[in-house]
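Structure tokens please, single chain.
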Amino acid sequence: MPVATPIECVSSNLAGRAAESARTRWCGRFAKELAERVGTAAEAGVLLAQAEFEVVWPAEGPGPLQAVLDGVLRRHVHNPDGMERLFAALEFQYGEPRWLTAHRQGYQAIRAERWGLLPAVAPGLLDAQERADLDTLLGDPGCPTEPGELCEVLWAAASSLGLPAARDGLLTAEQAGTVTALVEELDARNSPAGRVPPLLVFLEHLAARAEDVARADLRAWIDAVAQARADRVPTGRLAEERAAADAAASVSDTCHASLTSCLVRVEGSGPGAGRYRLAAWLYRRGRCLGIKVQDDTVYTAAEISGGAEELIARLQPYVQHLDPETLTFEFLLPWEALGWPVDEWNLRGGGQLAVARPIGRYGPVVVRSLDRLRDGWSTSQWTARWERLDGRSAADDPPPRACWLDGDGTPADEADDRSESDCRPLVADMASPQALAAEVASRKDISCLILTYPYPHLATTVPDALLSAIQEGVPAAVWWRGHRDGSVPPGRARRVAELAEAGAGLSGLPATVLTLRQEAARCAKGSHDGTGIAVLWDNPGWHPERLRRLGGPRAHRGGNG
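Here you go.
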């Protein structure tokens, strides 16, 4: 066996030291970048777990995140399969921004022992002249470049832009407030092969909302750039994006009173009761705009409020430019959870709350039935009753009126407030829920129920009168979670019905309930009609689960069960 000469040994040793030094420098730079981008030890743990990297956090706490990440990377930098899993997890979470492309290319360089070479990262899409021409076009008064308008464009383009670009673009539009800053943000982003670059996606949607001359000029510029960058801009996909932008811009902004919804789905996890998983969507005008977050943790009923609050907080960057009163919070719940006090859960951000900030005091909060959503047999009645409630019934039909549902706890003198013109009340007879369901099915005029007895808020018994009515297609209901003496004060149901009808009618019920909750917050506990009030508001046409969407970042926090 040949023996290496002293010179060969020294040369080999020097090369090995240079390679290890390059790996160490790369790990330090990558750890610093990840610590700034990821932000918390919990989120870093999720990404490292997806790469199958084992992390032993110090007993006294995670310590400085950058140091922990640096140590993990140094242990695994020689494991190319693991590093590829880490890069894949990062691309799923962040897309393909330039910083991630640079670090991936740096890793590939040291693997190929080209540690002296700096990785070349593709520059922004535009050259200096193209950028100058674009700035001139965007200065046209016919282009919608106010901060609020830019946010609307980004919302419409979110599914094609991807979550990271949409999120960062919204933050830029909100904070910088200029189209110039937004163009710089999007131009700095690479796009995967076969995808339209984020800047051109945004500009297509901007052009769709511009005035005629400005639209034509901007799209002529887009076509010229696409032709000059044929290797980076797939023409077929660009045409599809243009059609999608035109379709999105053609939807009337006034077709619904509340344009944006945050929907939180609570779904049972596996066999048995009392354990749940969470997911949340943002959607608008009946279509999901590509923004979804999901939490794989399994929660008990006692833990679910905290999990939901954290999930809603993850969506906050996408809607921070909106007034909370224009954002409807919807909770899609299983039968046993419809009475949960979701309006009393809190809006959280990155810091600690000084005082409680209940969602129901800041924006409309409604509940929806998950079981009915997945039960196709009630869809036709549900849709017909909703159309009447939403003002789309035949012109000669009388306007929808609330129907009372009496039960155990209805005040004895409640009936004294009723007139002959009222709908005939229903009675919640727990001994015969089938009879109630049959009566609801036969009465097509019932679109909204107002309960005159307290509804349990920790758990419900199936079968149940309210649930039977929901299963038969009733899309709206109002109830109270109980007064201090275990009853609903007399006349409360009548007052709320009259208040709704005096405003926008029953179609404005969520806004009416929001006003009541805000007034109740300023009064002694239990003394106001808005105390403990809940509303079911279930539009059969708005199903985020069935709408086109882009899978967003998953919380992947590791189940507790």
